[in-house]
Amino acid sequence: MIAKTPKPPYYAVIFTSNRTEGDLGYSEMAVEMEKLVEKQPGFLGFESARTEVGITVSYWQDLESIRNWKENEAHAIAREKGRKTWYQNYKVRIARVEHDYGFERENLKSQ
Amino acid sequence: MIAKTPKPPYYAVIFTSNRTEGDLGYSEMAVEMEKLVEKQPGFLGFESARTEVGITVSYWQDLESIRNWKENEAHAIAREKGRKTWYQNYKVRIARVEHDYGFERENLKSQ
What we know:
2 copies of one chain form a homodimer.
Chain A: E1 10-19, H1 26-37, E2 43-50, E3 54-60, H2 63-71, H3 73-86, E4 87-104, H4 107-110
Antiparallel strand pairs in A: 1-3, 1-4, 2-3
Helix pairs in contact in A: 1-3
């Protein structure tokens, strides 16, 4: 799913990662975090995919909302477990979305 | 691969898409575009993954570099073919990376 985000400006957190071998409780945590993040004030949506590298982009109203999510206790515990268990390496980039545009195939609507 | 990007600020183009069925020449174009983009001035790297949705994030020195790549003729033809053939829908977000940090597992180095 492509996230339905409002008119810019808003913020994106781009999380790119390489996993360790095996699930090791990762999937369960991911489902739990997804439920939690949706309740966060200022959360606008997210997109996620993994081929070799995994990319998750979450969208936020402002930097304060991102900071509040970072300080969420369950999220902090999950991140700690991530460094101990689930990730070989990762990179987090915090970016201000200044401009966006999209495309939708006509026949999606007419068929 | 996680892109090796310089110290912020720099720019990210977040391209999220849903494909149509079948390859239809997509893979060949993707390889060609990858070769081309690497020659573009101001191009810093990219990351790409697809599960259901596809996410490609390319990183750039500045907005002018992004604009120049958009005006590249072969790239413009590929985008046109994308709207005609390869994509159900997509969204492009242009964002200024303001802050980044990473993690790398210790045993990657010591083993």
